[in-house]
UniProtKB/TrEMBL annotation:
It comes from Desulfatibacillum aliphaticivorans. The chain crosses the membrane at residues 20-46, 280-304, 324-351, 381-401. NCBIfam families: lolCE. This is Lipoprotein releasing system, transmembrane protein, LolC/E family. Its main location: membrane.
């Protein structure tokens, strides 16, 4: 192999009269580097977006939700069901919850909301909500406290964007209206209750921050006239990627009157769309490397044309077709390897800068995040490098094959 490397290195160091071929070589190298850089940065952003969305979803929603099946209006004896769920292997916590649509109205506006009634003590087993609510201690104020709330008015925690739309802050009073009203002599009347805003929830996702409202479970049962029933159970599992299997085990333990779904199934369309977009961007951007590969082929074809006499002399001295093939394959792969290494270096540097300084801001009302998320994964870098090197290798095969097929006798005879 040392012989082929030596000759290939001599061919890459073009003389002054071969400056045009040398320029094409540099452009090919830069093209491969640019393509790899673009791939690494874009795929890192796509991976970061997927990880960011997954983190936000799991920070505001349970891993598994258990609901009563059939025509049941609610789950009774939910604490017994909780004990059964906690016995399932892989379950870390379970908490009852109430969920219903509602209308929230303030003096300055109104907004639809997804009302969630929770037991604050048990819900902390599912996800840590305390760090996402301001001011501190807001969860403890959901239940009326005579010391801080002499009027005995229940508390409510609103999503950050909803509170902004309603133009309310902690301490303000809002009205909540239930879609299921009560029958009166004049027809159906909506159920209304006044609550005090005790905190603002910031989950980091606009979809949640603009719709979620939290109140104490007991207060939600009274408001919605549910008696001693709940909508279902929230479950936290040890391994989030085994949530589907654990959901099946939970339904098996509770019986056919219950059904369970996991976070992957609830957000399947979103994650499938992200994966499809990631694959599409990979295919589109790999075309940049493909264009650079054509330049590599052009460079080698010109090199073979210029070095016809040298090839003939090498063959006359005993060089085999295999050796000639290796010389030009190594030339092309040198361009591919250096270009790929350059692209990886620049791409890694750009990703590090974007991740550290976060100077690109996004509109949270349009996107699912307010900063450009960046996350590099070694697997993605290896796939991108492998794809770039494979394309460069394929680009060298035809020119190298043509060089190995040259007839030294004809070249020496006719020049």
């Amino acid at each position: 192999m040392a012989f082929e490397l030596f000759i290939g290195g001599r061919y890459l160091r073009a003389k002054r009269r071969e400056a045009f071929a040398s320029l094409i070589t540099v452009l090919s190298l830069c093209g491969v580097g640019l393509g790899v850089t673009a791939l690494i940065v874009v795929i890192a952003v796509m991976t970061g977006a997927e990880a960011h969305i997954k983190e936000r979803i799991l920070g505001s929603t349970p891993h598994v939700i258990v609901m009563p099946g059939g025509m049941a209006q609610g789950m009774g004896e939910y604490m017994e069901a909780r004990k059964e769920i906690l016995q399932v292997p892989g379950v870390l916590g379970a908490a009852p919850f109430i969920q219903s649509q509602a209308m929230i109205r303030s003096r300055r506006g109104a907004s639809g909301a997804l009302l969630r009634g929770v037991n604050p003590a048990l819900s902390n087993e599912i996800f840590d909500l305390k760090d996402k609510v301001e001011p501190p201690g807001a969860w403890d104020r959901l239940v009326p406290d005579e010391a801080s709330n002499p009027e005995g008015r229940p508390g409510i925690i609103l999503g950050k964007e909803m509170a902004s739309n309603l133009n309310v802050i902690p301490g303000d009073v809002i009205s909540i209206i239930s879609p299921s009203g009560t029958l009166s002599p004049v027809g159906m009347m909506p159920t209304m209750q006044r609550l005090e805003v005790v905190g603002v929830f910031s989950g980091g996702m606009y979809e949640y921050d603009s719709t979620l409202a939290w109140m104490d479970m007991k207060q939600a049962q009274k408001f919605l006239r549910m008696g001693d029933t709940v909508s279902g159970m929230e479950v936290r599992v040890k391994d989030i990627y085994k949530a589907d299997r654990i959901a099946s085990e939970i339904t098996g333990a509770l019986g056919p009157m219950f059904w369970a779904t996991d976070w992957m199934r609830m957000n399947k369309n979103l994650f499938e769309a992200l994966k499809m977009e990631k694959r599409a961007m990979f295919v589109i951007l790999i075309l940049i490397v493909l264009v650079a590969a054509f330049n590599i082929s052009t460079t080698l074809i010109m090199m073979v044309t210029e070095k016809r006499k040298d090839i003939a002399i090498l063959k006359a001295m005993g060089a085999t077709k295999r050796s000639i093939l290796k010389i030009f394959v190594l030339n092309g792969m040198f361009i591919g390897i250096v270009g790929t290494a350059l692209g990886i270096s620049i791409g890694t540097l750009l990703c590090t800068i974007l991740e550290k300084y976060q100077f690109i801001k996004l509109d949270g009302s349009v996107y699912l995040f307010d900063r450009l998320p960046v996350k590099m994964e070694m697997f993605d870098v290896l796939v991108i490098s492998g794809a770039a090197l494979l394309i460069c290798l394929l680009a060298t095969l035809y020119p190298a094959w043509r060089a190995s097929r040259l007839d030294p006798v004809e070249i020496i005879r006719y020049g």
